[in-house]
Write a structure and sequence with these properties.
Layout: E1 9-13, H1 24-30, E2 35-38, E3 54-57, H2 59-64, H3 68-83, E4 89-93, H4 103-114, E5 118-121, H5 127-134, E6 143-146, H6 147-151, E7 164-167, H7 172-182, E8 191-196, E9 204-209, E10 223-227, H8 236-247, H9 253-257, H10 264-279, H11 283-306, H12 312-326, H13 328-331, H14 339-356, H15 374-387, H16 396-411, H17 415-435, H18 440-464, H19 474-488
Parallel strand pairs: 1-4, 1-5, 2-3, 2-4, 6-7
Antiparallel strand pairs: 7-10, 8-9, 8-10
Helix pairs in contact: 3-4, 8-11, 10-11, 15-17, 16-17, 18-19
Length: about 500
């Protein structure tokens, strides 16, 4: 047999693993050459290659490389070099050359840049036999993902209300990392299927719970995971569609009439209701209230889309860029000492952002919203000033300042002066709260709630006695109050 003197690079797909599934074109080509380079020799078809064929593999690169990226880079460089020979090179990969195959697209791109001829002989990918094994039609919305990429994330990037097929679960470690990422969205006992060696004589489908996938003894190079969808409506995209439908001509008359201005009060109301759930430590209520708050956000984004103002994609891209930019200590190589250093960097980066956008220089406190509740506004002002060192060195002067302002309230000679000094006292107390690493707004809301509960006990006692509150003495009311307080503290 003679080597085909074609020059250039031929990339050939070996199919999923069954020699019978090699394409006619692939088999004819394999019988017309005398040398082949394999990305990996660990593939079932290799044993059935023509006997006269001289077989090389790049498996040694996997043993020596520090990462898959390093291995793939070396393989690409070697195939490109071999492609410049007069006889060229045939490079074979598992499955299809452009399905779950990192080297082929890069070889083709680089070869075109260098003027090296490239021929691609397609092969059956792992997908078709996987669909057959699962009895699955991938249309209309199956997500395809790589186990290494998903396992390296903290949260999956595909919608949970659509099915997913995740390939290359070649080891227990890969499966373990993958399941941890998926369990940030899916229940631990979500039913899944591991598909092993699809399209070969060793094909197997395992029905498991998600938390069990790294316990399978059958994990290997030809393993993929099928993740059925969660219930309808479990994705952000599905929620956006619901809101868009509400605003459509065939949607809800009330929703269609809303504007940014008309929805303003609802945004504020839902925010406070979410805070109430937080204050009550009621996670069921918080889940519901966060949904109500999200409704308001998506409604505003939908109205903006319809008016040509901005889209939800722009909202997400904007906050994505902002978070990455302002956290170089997480997403880059910046080093920070502590939280104070993080906050100082944050302010500096915000200033750079304003300069890049050509915005006028603002004071540090100019962006504190005037619409914030007064306690929250005071604490935010103090926090920002402290970031640049305008703060007491320790808590003792803070206590002294509270006492000083208290004395000035007592010494005030008229209502106007007294109101001013009371404001100063409140500001000083907020600073004391801040030094104790508490939140002033939350602390006062907690006190308000306790007062309401205890006062309701007084009202209930009056009703039981058939009396009006105005008929009770302060001593009687105080006795009930103290009893309520002891009950809350578990003292009776």
């Amino acid at each position: 047999m003679q080597t085909k003197a074609t020059g250039g690079i031929t990339i050939l797909g070996l199919g999923p693993g069954n020699p019978d599934q090699l394409t006619r074109a692939a088999w004819d080509w394999l019988n017309s050459i005398d040398e082949i380079y394999l990305r990996t020799g660990h593939h079932p078809v290799v044993a059935s290659l023509p006997e006269e064929l001289v077989v090389h593999s790049f498996d040694e690169y996997y043993e020596q490389g520090e990462s898959f990226e390093d291995v793939y880079r070396q393989i690409v460089e070697q195939v490109l070099a071999l492609g410049t020979r007069s006889q060229g090179v045939t490079y074979a990969v598992p499955g299809h050359p452009f399905v779950a195959e990192a080297t082929s697209p890069e070889i083709v791109r680089r070869a075109r840049e260098q003027g090296i001829p490239v021929k691609v002989i397609e092969g059956l990918s792992f997908l078709e036999p996987s669909f057959t094994a699962l009895g699955l039609d991938p249309f209309p919305q199956l997500t395809l993902a790589d186990a290494l990429e998903v396992g390296a994330m903290h949260h999956p990037t595909f919608p949970a209300d659509q099915p997913a097929l995740i390939a290359q679960i070649y080891s227990k470690e890969t499966a373990s990392r993958l399941k941890l990422t998926l369990m940030s969205v899916y229940p631990d006992e979500h039913p899944v299927k591991l598909v092993h060696a699809a399209g070969t004589s060793h094909e197997m489908v395992e029905d498991l719970h998600l938390y069990e996938i790294d316990r399978s003894p059958n994990l290997g190079l030809l393993t993929a995971l099928y993740v059925p969808p969660l219930a309808e409506g479990a994705s952000f995209e599905a929620f956006q569609e619901i809101i868009a439908h509400l605003r459509a001509p065939d949607g809800c008359p009330w929703d269609r009439e809303q504007t940014h201005a008309s929805l303003r009060r609802y945004l504020l109301e839902e925010t406070y209701e979410a805070l109430e759930a937080l204050d009550a430590d009621d996670m069921d209520a918080l889940r519901e209230e966060l949904g109500d708050l999200l409704l308001q956000i998506v409604l505003h984004a939908q109205i903006a889309t319809e008016e040509g103002e901005f889209t939800m994609a722009e909202v997400l891209q904007g906050i994505h860029h902002k978070i990455v930019y302002r956290h170089p200590h997480v997403f880059s190589d910046t080093r920070v000492r502590d939280v104070a250093n993080v906050l100082a960097n944050w302010e500096q980066l915000k200033r750079h952002e304003r300069e890049e956008k050509g915005k006028a220089e603002k004071g540090m406190l100019d962006s504190v919203p005037l619409s914030l509740p007064a306690l929250t506004q005071a604490q935010e002002i103090q926090d920002r000033a402290a970031r640049v060192g305008f703060d007491w060195p320790d808590i003792q002067p803070v206590w002294e300042k509270v006492q000083e302002e208290f004395n000035e309230v007592q010494a005030a000679q008229d209502e106007a002066s007294r109101e001013k000094e009371l404001g100063d006292l409140l500001f000083a107390v907020v600073n004391l709260v801040r030094w104790y690493k508490a939140d002033a707004e939350t602390a006062l809301r907690g006190t308000n709630n306790r007062f309401r509960r205890r006062f309701s006990r007084i009202e209930a006692a009056a009703r039981q006695q058939g009396r009006e509150l105005t008929e009770m003495t302060l001593a009687e009311m105080d006795e009930i109050w103290e009893a309520a307080k002891r009950a809350e503290n578990g003292e009776e």
